[in-house]
Amino acid sequence: MDFRKYTILLGKLSGSYGGQPVQGSVGDEVLLPPEDGDALEARGVVMLSPHDEEHPPIVAIETLPQEAPPVTPPTPPKLESDPPKLDINTCSFEALEALPTIGAKTARSIMAKRPYLNIEEVPGKAGLGGLVKANWYQVARLLEVVTPE
User: Helix count (H) and strand count (E) of the chain?
Assistant: First the structure.
């Protein structure tokens, strides 16, 4: 089989021609088998210049799929953290009243039964009503009991 010599003028060749694997980059010489109707398969844009005047230059434009770049998962957005927890034994009336489902009456009741040893005892000890008790888990995540040293 007669091979023809070409020089790669543009691009990086990684594919096949006439069923034969062909590789190289700019400036490299490659040997290609005689044309038998097969097209040059390549990634990107490749231009080959023949070493003789009888054959035209060969140009291939993206005949093979590009290798996919590695996928980097998106960085999840930063979520605002919960506000600093309030110490139920020392926080102000206004701070308690500002909590979800806690009104003035409930805030006064909580303050009147201080001190608390843990957050779980607050609903029973303070005599909280049904709605506040039912939603206590939402309020409890905003509170803490700081034990004095």
Answer: 5, 8
Q: What is the CATH number of domain 86-144?
A: 1.10.150.320
**pLDDT > 70 in the chain, percent:** 59
Output DSSP code: residue 119.
Answer: G
Q: Quick count: other Cβ atoms within 10 Å of Cβ 36?
A: 8
Give the DSSP letter of residue 73: P
CA 91 to centroid of chain Cα atoms: 40
The arithmetic mean of pLDDT across residues 82-101, rounded, is: 87
**CATH 1.10.150.320 location in the chain:** 86-144
Confidence of residue 6 (pLDDT cuts 50, 70, 90): confident
130: left (phi over 0), alpha (psi -120 to 50) or beta: alpha
